Amino acid sequence: MSEKKFCLDITREEMLQWCVDNKLPKFRAEQIFKWLESGVTNLDQMTNVPKDVKAKLENDFVFSSMKIIQEFKSEIDDTRKLVYLLPDGNIIETVIMRYKTGLSICISSQAGCKMGCAFCASAKAGFGRSLTAGEMAAQVLLSQNYIGERIRTVVVMGIGEPFDNYDNLLGFIKIMNDPNGVNMGARHITVSTCGLTPKIKEFTKLKMQVNLAISLHAPNDELRRELMPISKVYGLADLIDACRDYVKVTGRRITFEYSLFEGVNDTFACAENLAKLLNGINCHVNLIAANEFPDSPYHRPSRNRVEAFRKILEDKGVNVTLRREMGSDIMAACGQLRRGMEDKA
Fold first, then answer.
1. SS3 214
2. What is the model's pLDDT at position 323?
3. How far is residue 291 from each of residues 87, 142, 323, 324, 331, measured CA to CA in Å?
4. For 128-185, how does the pLDDT look when each residue is reduced to its tens digit (9 = 90+)?
5. Measured on CA atoms in the order 269, 274, 280, 282, is the torsion positive or negative?
6. CA distances from 265 to 272, 289, 336 (A)
């Protein structure tokens, strides 16, 4: 990857200093930054920036290097998957979903994933690298410009483990939340983690109003270790304690993602144990009928089985919904994203 900084990783302060260093008027910094925060990374489109300034910018920073190279459109719904090429040749995927409340985008935080969850296509493609804060933000801003509609909410739930890229995750939230820039409210941002407990505790101390989602998928350590290797390092008891603390400190309801796999974690006993595990937590359980991908060892249960599991949770007083399936025909659903081109639709 180039040693030059990606343009969307430049802060306002850095841009101002760059102008000072290059003996340019300070108003240029705000001019350039307004283009960047609107998702314009092509210097040719910056119509009010002089050619000599553009030449200096191109010499010092990386522009127009993160590109959409493929697009898939679902025939089931209005979901769109965009495939992005990064400057170093890594490939990531970003998903745009349409809801009644507006557009939501699911972005990747890494090119590949180290966590090795047995049911996730991302883990099968290996790990490339973590994304910068600007590359995470670019998925929102460039996608928004590409489709010509404003994106209302962001979920950091695509390829990668966000808390394994902690500093850049915080940088991304800062970019999105900047009142003088993108100005997206913290409550419109959701971060999903498979359970890096120390980072959850660290994140809690920041007292952000960002939504937190936990990929749980099992009600006990034995089963969770089979599905998610991270559970061998951070057990359920500590994870759930960290979640309780997050709710207490932030006042925010927490979401637990639970994918149902036929004959594995969809038993009635699992449902009852899950309700017991989450007892007393201000939470919401998002049930997901497993999204399959080629060579996946896990399969979705029948609709009746899913509904029975949901009813047990409801009867136990758990707030639960069945996630609406979106984009599964273009491999854009939860657990189906990859970091390469091998999933062509």
1. strand
2. 78
3. 30, 27, 11, 11, 9
4. 999 999 999 999 999 999 999 999 999 999 999 999 999 999 999 999 999 888 999 9
5. negative
6. 11, 11, 19
Report how far apart, in Å, the C-alpha atoms of 92 and of each of 5, 87, 136 are: 19, 11, 10
pLDDT in tens, 223-241: 999 999 999 999 999 999 9
Catalytic annotation on 161? no
Q: CA-based Rg of the chain, rounded to a whole angstrom? A: 21
93 is catalytic: yes
- β 102-107/91-99 pair status: antiparallel
DSSP secondary structure code for residue 100 in this structure: T
**Which one-letter DSSP state was computed for residue 300?**
P
Question: What DSSP letter does each residue of 254-298 carry, written as one string?
Answer: EEEEEEE-TTTT-SHHHHHHHHHHTTT--EEEEEEE----TT-S-
248-267: pLDDT as tens digits: 999 999 999 999 999 999 99
Pick left, alpha or beta for residue 58 (phi over 0 → left; psi -120 to 50 → alpha; otherwise beta).
Answer: alpha
The Cα–Cα gap between 29 and 17 comes to 8
Listed residue (338, 345, 296) closest to 122, CA to CA: 338
- Name the H helices within the chain: 12-21, 27-37, 51-60, 121-124, 133-147, 166-177, 197-205, 221-227, 236-250, 268-277, 303-315
How far is the C-alpha of 259 from the C-alpha of 334, rounded, in Å? 9
Active-site pick, 7, 37, 93, 194: 93
Contact 265, 217 (CB under 8 A): yes
Alpha helix (H) residue ranges in 22-60: 27-37, 51-60
